[in-house]
Amino acid sequence: MRDDVMGSAMENYFKKNDNTLIRVFINKSEEPEMYPSLFFRSYKNMLKYEKIALKNSKGKVLDLGCGAGCHSLYLQNKGFDVTAVEVSKKSASVAVAQGLKNVIKEDWRNLSLKKFDTVLVLMNGMGLAESPAELQLMLRKLKSFLSKTGSILIDSTDVTYAKADWPMLDSEYFGKVQFELKYKGKTQCFPWLFVDFETAVKTAKSVKLNVEVLERARNGHFLLRLSKMS
Ligand SMILES: C[S@@+](CC[C@H](N)C(=O)[O-])C[C@H]1O[C@@H](n2cnc3c(N)ncnc32)[C@H](O)[C@@H]1O
What we know:
Blueprint: H1 5-16, E1 22-26, E2 29-34, H2 48-55, E3 60-64, H3 70-77, E4 81-86, H4 89-97, E5 103-105, E6 116-121, H5 132-144, E7 146-157, E8 176-183, E9 186-193, H6 197-206, E10 209-216, E11 221-228
Helix pairs in contact: 1-4, 5-6
The structure holds S-adenosylmethionine.
């Protein structure tokens, strides 16, 4: 079975306060390492775009790819009705152990849900799709999870600036990359998608979603609010 490095790191940090760093490679090029404690960040330590997303959350909330559950926990503690989805068994168990009441251990591809007022997909959330074509499928599916006035709050990063550093492994789209996480002698490899702003907007509009830009930072990162066209 594929090593679940991220899940193991979250579990070890939660159970033993073990903050052994995770080495990160994108297309074989080494990136700044990551500490498991990152997934347990408090509201105070969140980035501006996360605070904007949380402030714009309303009603019944779905948190897709919740990890250890930092965003869900914040909202649940504020009285929101939150459902969190996480594909990793270990990460999902940590989210439950942290006190999240509704956690679904599942791949978003297998979900069929209804009537959420907010769907959060944060920390380069568009990466939960593996290609621009799958991003279109994912946005169409997430749209079907929304209530009439609901919205999807999702982010990504235009990595055009990093193109020179990352050997391009995929000729289809430069933001389609391979992540490799190394932790305690184990390696986890998985595909990820970084989407440029224009592609993100075009893809959302192609499935008839309205696009509002909630934040666009100088480093290429952006947060969008997508809602049903009336
Ligand atoms: C970059 S982490 C972000 C975690 C959390 N949202 C945060 O901001 O701390 C992405 C999370 O999505 C989960 N994930 C990846 N693919 C998924 C899928 N197909 N369905 C559900 N969750 C997925 C991973 O296991 C991981 O915990």
